[in-house]
Specification:
30% helix, Leu-rich_rpt, disordered C terminus, Leu-rich_rpt_4, five-stranded parallel sheet, Zyg-11_UBL_adapter, DUF38 domain-containing protein
Amino acid sequence: MSVASLLDLTSSQVMDCIFEGTLPPSAYQLDPVISNRLFEEYCRIYDIEITKSVMKEICSRLNVTRVDMRHCVVQRSEILILQNQNIESLVMGSLMCLEPKQITGPVTISKLLPSLVSLGIAGRPLNATEFTTLCTCYPNLRNLDISNTNVKDLRGISNLSNLEVLAIGGLEVTDMKEVFELKKLRMPLLSPKPTRIVPFMPPSAP
C-alpha cells in the first residue's frame, strides 16, 4: 500500500489557506517542487471563484516551473498566473480565452513563457503553418511532444537547435530530413503509436 507524502497531505490545506487569505505572511517564495505541487492542487479546484487577491497571492507565493494541463480547462486567470511564473515545462490541455482575441497560439505563449524548454501538445491538431510557427517561436526547446497532432511535414524543425527529445508517435511524416540537422537530438520517440514514414515519390513524367 502506497503512503501519501507529507507534501501531498498538506497541499490542499495550503491552497485552502491561500483562498481564504489565512496563509501567514512571508517575504520568500516557495521552492519549485512545492510550488508545482500546489499549482496542481490549484488546477483541481473548479468551483471556487478566483479573485484578484487570490491571483496576487498565488503569483507572489509560488515559483512554478512545471505545469501539466491535460486534465483541466485553463481560462484567462490561469494564463495570467503562469505569465508571472518561471515556466520551463508546459503540457497543454484544453486552453480557453475569455476575450475575442486569442492568447493561446504559439507566438503568444512563447512571449508569455519565455523560459519554456519543454512543450507537450500531443493530441492537439496542428497544420503545417502552425508547426512552422511553433518551431520559430521556441528556439530554446529541449523537449517537444507532437504525438498525434496530424503533423505530416517536419520542415522548420531545424530551428530547434537545442532539441534533445522529440516525441512523434502516431504521425505520418513525409519529410524528416531536417531532423538529422539537430545535432543534440537523441532517437525520436515513436510511442505510443508507431510513426509511419511516407517515402517521397517524385511525380511521374507525362
